[in-house]
Amino acid sequence: MALLDRIGIDLGRKIRLEEGIELAARHGVRFIDVQLDTGDNAIGQFDEARAASVRAACQRHGIALGLHTLSAVNVAEYAPMVADAVDAYLHAYLDAYRLLDARWIVIHAGYHFTDDKELRMQAGLARIRRLVAAAEKSGAILYLENLNKEPKAAEVHYLAHTLDEWRYYYDQIDSPNLRLSFTVNHAHLVPEGVDGFIDALDFRRVGEVRLADCFRNGHEVHLLPGQGDLDFGRMFRRIEAAGFSGHYTNAFGTLDDMLAARADLVASARASGVSVD
């Protein structure tokens, strides 16, 4: 598959899912993901008739649909009752996966409040293990994403934003139903950098690479390619050479920004010596 065809877009909460599918089809986009948390796209808004329409549209246009859980939902939650609600939320995404005939679900490791990091990591690992066990029974594919760093002085910090933290989860859960979503701009924010992550990753386990620009060791921003200092040409060259054959997802700016940037990203890859056809 040509590189252009492998670059999808993140619908997020920007558009009704059916409209997003038609938008993708008009622009030749083969991969999209969406959050099912608010408005017309909230999980409870999909009955069987609507879901059947979504499935048919994706099949008709050759579009692979992914679901993207909300990082604000703390997968590392351990408080009574609230912890049960997090489990219910994640399992609702498993149900939506089946209903919509999705191809993957992006999940996260949660966050801690500085002095409870170890306890939060243990709780998150146990929850992800339970979710993976359920995914193995249902056939769902989960992608665990590396998240972004927060300012050092912040009380709240995302987990799995460094290589060591990410490994804590994926090294301890060996399942074909748990793969990785590698967000390069998040890697660009920490000392390991994009190269360090690429060196460490087994790309047979990576299902998706998420793209946005930012500044080296800077703060969390999702800039259009070229507005930061991430070298996308080098990134494509190294990831493709590592054997990655999955899809990329643009996750920045407006829908129009993400669509327009696809050709520019392919041009960056080509200029770096990547075979794009």
Q: Can you give keywords for this protein?
A:
277 residues; 8-stranded parallel β-barrel; globular; alpha/beta; two-stranded antiparallel sheet; 10 helices; TIM Barrel
Structure explained in plain terms:
- With 277 residues, the chain is of the alpha/beta class.
- The chain has one domain (3-271): TIM Barrel (Alpha-Beta Barrel).
- The protein contains ten helices and ten strands.
- It has helices spanning 3-6, 17-26, 48-61, 82-100, 117-138, 163-170, 184-187, 193-200, 232-241, 255-271, and strands at 7-12, 31-34, 64-68, 104-107, 111-112, 142-145, 157-158, 178-183, 206-211, 247-250.
- It has an eight-stranded parallel beta barrel. A two-stranded antiparallel sheet has the order 5-7.
- The mean pLDDT is 97.
How do the helices and strands line up, and which of them pair or pack?
Layout: H1 3-6, E1 7-12, H2 17-26, E2 31-34, H3 48-61, E3 64-68, H4 82-100, E4 104-107, E5 111-112, H5 117-138, E6 142-145, E7 157-158, H6 163-170, E8 178-183, H7 184-187, H8 193-200, E9 206-211, H9 232-241, E10 247-250, H10 255-271
Parallel strand pairs: 1-2, 1-10, 2-3, 3-4, 4-6, 6-8, 8-9, 9-10
Antiparallel strand pairs: 5-7
Helix pairs in contact: 2-3, 4-5, 9-10
